[in-house]
Amino acid sequence: MTSTKTSPLRVLVVDDHELTRCTLKLALSRQSYIKAVEVASNGKEAIAKAQKCNPDLIVMDLHMPVMDGWAASSYIKSQYPDIKIVAYSAAEGGKARATENGATIDAFCDKGACTLSLLETIKNVV
């Protein structure tokens, strides 16, 4: 699917595991349709980065300390409804379970999926 957005995306990766953040930042920054990748380690940092960096899309883990992805996604969507949020999590039940538990997300990608699946999910959301 081709993105309908004409300018390259600004992406925020939110995950409490440093290796996951670094790996996703590297993988995403190599995509021609993504111009900037910021990172945060919890939901509270995600809110601050969303305010500061104005991302087009957030890839957010749901299970994190300080503030989880469920609370952070709901807050971010209430303040910035145009930001797309992809939950990137090992939470069982996928998008339906995530939204039942309060996450306000546009898509869900299982952490066990390959990187290409996440990239396709991102393209489909934007």
TrEMBL record:
Classification via InterPro entries: CheY-like_superfamily, NreC/VraR/RcsB-like_REC, Sig_transdc_resp-reg_receiver, ST_Response_Regulator
Keywords (A to Z) from UniProt: Phosphoprotein
Signal peptide start-end: none
4-aspartylphosphate sites (modified residues): D61
PROSITE patterns: RESPONSE_REGULATORY
Pfam families to which the protein is assigned, alphabetical: Response_reg
Gene Ontology biological process: phosphorelay signal transduction system
Record-annotated Response regulatory domain positions: 10-126
Protein name: Response regulator transcription factor
Source species taxonomy: Bacteria, Bacillati, Cyanobacteriota, Cyanophyceae, Pseudanabaenales
